[in-house]
Amino acid sequence: MRSIPANKQKAKVTQLTVSKPTRLMEFLIEQLKGKSRTTVKSLLAHRQVSVGTHFITQFDYPLEPNQLVTINWGVVPEQTRLRGVRILFEDPYLIVIDKEAGMLSIATAKEKLLTTYSILSSHVKKEDPTNRIFVVHRLDRDTSGVMMFAKSEKVQEIMQKEWQEAVIRRSYIAVVEGIVEKDEDTIRSFLKENKMLFMYSTKVPGEGDEAITHYKVLKRSEEFSLLEVELETGRKNQIRVHMKEMGHSVAGDKKYGSKLNPLRRTCLHANILAFKHPITGEELSFETPPPHRFLTLFLL
Question: Which residues have a catalytic role annotated?
């Protein structure tokens, strides 16, 4: 291990060379003697750790021999703090983010400026004005959580073409209306969009795309149930339609039958996205906790 002061005006950095295959958190704890696990987690969360030339926040990011890990002990550069968006992972091919509720994924006829796409586009152009980003999948405006963008058209095409095979796990946390009686279950149907851009469910094979949703109840209150929902397929508005179909619309989702809006948003959060990297083949997994406000609805 060697410490290198960048200059008298800048904070000290520590550079570490990887000697054997390992995971980033394990490597840092082993190398940074005397630093607690909490301190290491904080360094990762605040984008103070980079592997090669890229900031990494993923605690189980795989490391290979001879890679250079750099820890910046100073203040995080201002340009990494983006409005409504927290970068979880970035490399030359992908950006994985945690999106706040209220942010559109891409521009619409009514909203063209402040979108997740426009914010990340500005972010990558700071490094090189010719850089671009490309949409891989979307989250609805009021849905928060983990989503991914590609940094080239080639990577976008690979991910969209191989989405079903590439995605290992896609999980959400949802607050739904009423008391869901079954502790866990699977919903299977076919989803189709009508001329009003409204998705609806049918049991008739061939009348839409097959949609499979698994759920498990985490908590119940007198008015709501907290669910962990896992997608086996990824159709447009799949969770929202399937929750409506079973008689427990997502809270705040007026379009699909909700009558209550306790948090003034659709109570849906994309908490886990795990996938195989389209270029390196590595299996990557990202998880963010549900908004604290979801849990306040279940306090005694």
Answer: 140
According to CATH, what is the number of the domain 1-75? Answer: 3.10.290.10
Tens of pLDDT along the chain (300 residues)?
Answer: 333 333 333 347 788 999 999 999 999 999 998 888 888 988 888 778 888 767 788 888 899 898 889 888 875 544 445 788 988 888 889 999 999 998 888 876 565 567 899 999 998 888 788 999 999 999 999 999 999 999 999 999 999 999 989 999 999 999 999 999 999 999 999 999 998 889 999 998 888 899 999 999 999 999 999 999 999 998 999 999 999 999 999 999 999 999 999 999 999 999 999 999 998 888 888 888 889 999 999 986
| CB of 94 closer than 8 Å to CB of 126 | no
* CA gyration radius, the chain: 21
Joined tokens for residue 83:
């409005």
Q: Can you give the residue ranges of every domain in the chain?
A: 1-75, 168-270
129: which DSSP letter?
A: T
* Domain 168-270 classification at class level: alpha beta
